[in-house]
Structures are given as C-alpha cells and as structure tokens.
Design goal:
two-stranded parallel ribbon, 36% helix, 2 strands, alpha+beta, single chain, globular
Amino acid sequence: PLTAPAGVEVRWLHRGGPFTPETTRFAAAVEDAAWREGRVHAFVHGEREQVKRVRAYLTDVRGVDRRQLSVSAYWAYGRAEDVFQAEKQTPAGQIFEDGTTGG
C-alpha cells in the first residue's frame, strides 16, 4: 500500500480500458475533486492532451499560479517516442504552425 502524510489524499484512478484520445476520465476526476482552501500545488504528468486540459483547468478556472504547478507530458497518443521528444524541444506555437502535429 502507498502511504501518505497527514492531510494528503491518494486517489487511484483506473482507466477502465485502452487509452483513446477521447478519454476524459483523468481530467474529469481533477475537475470533480473537492477543492481545498489555501495554496495548492499540483503535480500533473501524463499524456500530452490530458495534461494540457488539466493545466488549463487549474490555471484558467481555479486560478492556480503556474509557479505552483509541475506539469509535463511524458507521451503523446499516436506519436513515436523520437518524434514526441523532438516536438517537446520545439516551441508549442511552432509545432502547430509547421503542421508537424495533428494532436
């Protein structure tokens, strides 16, 4: 079992099947979670589109300061590892302008 210090809740979220780009379970769980008062720090790592959605929710809806976030996409659906790693080195706006990613 995973132990956590007092005041920390560990919540396991099972995907329930193969991953698809339409999967919203992760983001929905974040959006539906009870919100605590005070300063929040979020560690959000996972598939690129899921991470983007959760980051937008935390910053735009919940007003979490970006300095309180650790956000990183570890992988992107439909991307080979070498292509994904190369894209991570390219500024996001340029990726979409160049048409090198279709999401």
